[in-house]
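Lecture 7 notes: from sequence to structure.
We start with the chain below.
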Amino acid sequence: PPTCSLRPAPRPSAQCPDTAPHQPGLSRLVLSDELVRPPRPAAQANPSPRTGARDQWSKKVDFLLSVIGFAVDLGNVWRFPYVCYQNGGGAFLIPYTLMAVFGGVPLFYMELALGQFHRVGAIPIWKHICPIFKGVGFATCVIGLYVSFYYNTILAWALYYLYSSLALALPWTSCGNPWNTPNCTSYFGRSNATWTPSSSSPAEEFYMRKVLGLQDSRGLDSVGGIRWQLLLCLILIFTIVYFSLWKGVKTSGKVVWVTATLPYVVLLILLVRGVTLPGAWRGIVFYLQPNWEKLTSTVWVDAAAQIFFSLGPGFGVLLALASYNPFSNNCYRDALVTSAANCLTSFLSGFVIFSVLGYMAEMRGVEVEDVAKDRGPGLLFITYPEALANMAGSTFFAIIFFLMMVTLGLDSTFGGLEAVITAVMDEYPHILAERRELFVLGLLTVCFLGSLATVTNGGSYVVKLLEEFGAGCSILAVVLLEAIAVSWFYGMPQFCSDVKAMLGFSPGVYWQVCWVAVSPAFLVVSTRGIAGPSQQKGKWARGAESSKAHGPQSSAPYLKWD
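Predicted structure tokens for the same chain:
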């Protein structure tokens, strides 16, 4: 265990009395031992469940669906397929699997075990683990707020698409609409269509001009006015979130029965439809064909970043959700089941996406690579909707696709905000214990006000700014500090003893080695997988990027000096 002072000396007592002789030129900075390792009373040598009137999940499946719903989000649909084909197709599955086994899943298991044993959120848990790291909990909450400022706006876009799909003819299929420009070119069903570098598709113009209104913004320096249709969609999203979270896990655990299972039904429907389309095999081969030459160091970095951000440790969500479990719940099995479901969903999404991209390539008469260049929102809001619009039964498939996107995002929003709610309420129970409904209302009001800039004409620029600089390296730093605090300060013997008290068996050598050495190294590697933007921005924007990139981390070293 670490010594309680900055000089190597034996500890005469738990309070570490200041007996060090004065050394010229050096200040005597002595850390209280309780800041490094809180003393465990003799009565708790064999820990038992913490008592108290804490809510619990009504059913075990409520918890599992909540965790799966949080982990499986929009990134599984839009990012994994792109990263996979960019990094060698089927060959990418090797580094992806290894990074999951030795990096992602151990961290996932650690957070579930910590939350279930200590039964508190991300802020107060540190007084049980290592109080000197309490700022990590505050940083987690700040990151959660950052993400809520833009993530729900993406759901508002999907909700607007869902509303627009309730028509006999989808509005992004033709060029004769008020928002279209002379450059609009529709090539589906036309053999004589001429495509030039300045041409744009109906789906692209619907997204860029009708939904986002980018033509009325000059960029981050002038985002323009509010898009009222998006504002109404955002209000509806926050209303759904509020009434799902206001009563705690008793209500959210029931909502996820719909929001966490519906995406799998839709994915299976889209998979069956996709593989029956002309040219689907071209996309699937392009997705899975291994390119062994791409197994370079960059691929391993991308695999580490993908598995980390997919499983989602560090956001405080796993701590919060597991804290409502019974003390003896088998969180080891839960970690394996939910992380496996997450990875398999990502793999399945690749078939859904690339079967349709193969169909588009067949219809356009081009290579799959030419239509697979879009990633992120462009894939979900331009490329895939364009393909859906040219299928038989396009309205039905568009409705279920965007309904799937909304439910995928809602689950992640539920988890992210529940992490903040649980952390703050557990930190200040004397103030908030009987006022959950009001606190949730106030928190969501703050999140809504923080999101207003993202529903302006230039709101997509703000979304990109927050997405690229709001979490990124900050969340990696938070998880790295968490892994170090648990493995090196709290100590493996104590943590394994806690797990044994819950499950009846201690984690094996494999898990301990991963927690102490492999997982921290995995996190360091993951930081290299975060690429910065290449777009030029104004000076104020670069300053905003810097503050957002380092803002959450600035809370982490919550040090107390005696």
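Points to note: The CA atoms of residues 191 and 364 lie 10 Å apart. The chain has one domain: 33-442+456-555.
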